[in-house]
Write a structure and sequence with these properties.
Layout: E1 17-20, H1 26-34, E2 38-39, E3 50-52, E4 57-59, H2 69-77, E5 81-84, H3 88-96, H4 109-120, E6 124-131, E7 134-144, E8 147-155, H5 160-175, E9 179-183, H6 187-190, E10 195-197, H7 199-209
Parallel strand pairs: 8-9
Antiparallel strand pairs: 1-3, 2-3, 4-9, 4-10, 5-6, 6-7, 7-8
């Protein structure tokens, strides 16, 4: 189905930019994700929104997550408690903190407001990892049919983001999702099984997934590392 708001993702320029402008509303965001496009602010909230479709695109095969023996022991130890959709905004705020002092953040106040609205409408979800009663890490993203677009994750305690990722993949498998998009490959996600595929392959996969009758549910599935 042709997008209501965006040119085809295949028409992205050499920087993977699809379009400048538009609105951060649920209608625009859901349309973007259905067509392999996502917002990535380049200049903060005071400038027009920029929308991208990356080539290559990073995914984590839902049957290909690598969990080290040490991480398995950490999960089994009971050090962390894991939940879903209990602290969505707090997870976004955690993800918005720059990793280093010189870094900025693309998770702007406008992005937080827009994705919290998606969450309130049942389209965006989070997995939270708790340690000693405090939020230690988490991951959030957007659900579109049988596809889940992981947006960002963070940790305050060692391994908390890895535990969140394992919990998310376990949950997506249990609920029947078929595609876990993470947009960009990093050494961190690569060490846990992330791979890159071409934009054309990603869009072909996405097209098969967006109308599947899959829902995120309300209770986190057991972690199966």
């Amino acid at each position: 189905m042709v997008s209501r708001f965006f040119p085809p993702a295949e028409q992205a320029d050499e920087h993977d930019l699809v379009m400048v402008g538009g609105r951060l509303t649920s209608e625009w965001l859901l349309d973007a994700y259905r067509h392999g496009i996502f917002p990535w602010p380049m200049w903060g909230d005071w400038m027009p929104m920029t929308w991208f479709s990356l080539d290559p695109r990073a995914i984590i095969p839902l049957d290909g997550l690598y969990v080290s023996s040490r991480l398995k022991r950490t999960i089994r130890s009971g050090k962390f408690t894991v939940t879903c959709d209990r602290a969505f905004r707090e997870v976004m705020l955690g993800c918005s903190k720059p990793r280093h002092k010189k870094d900025g953040t693309w998770i702007t106040p406008a992005m937080i407001k827009a994705y919290c609205q998606l969450h309130a409408e049942g389209h965006a979800h989070s997995v939270e990892v708790w340690h000693e009663g405090e939020l230690a890490g988490g991951i959030y993203g957007v659900s579109i049919g049988g596809a889940f677009a992981g947006e960002s994750m963070f940790h305050k305690v060692r391994d908390a983001s890895k535990v969140a990722l394992v919990a998310m993949v376990s949950h997506l498998n249990a609920r029947g999702y078929q595609l876990f998009d993470i947009q960009q490959w990093t050494e961190h996600t690569g060490s846990m099984g992330a791979i890159e595929i071409s934009r054309s392959d990603y869009l072909a996969l996405l097209k098969q997934m967006v109308d599947l009758p899959v829902t995120f549910g309300t209770e986190l599935a057991p972690i199966l590392p």
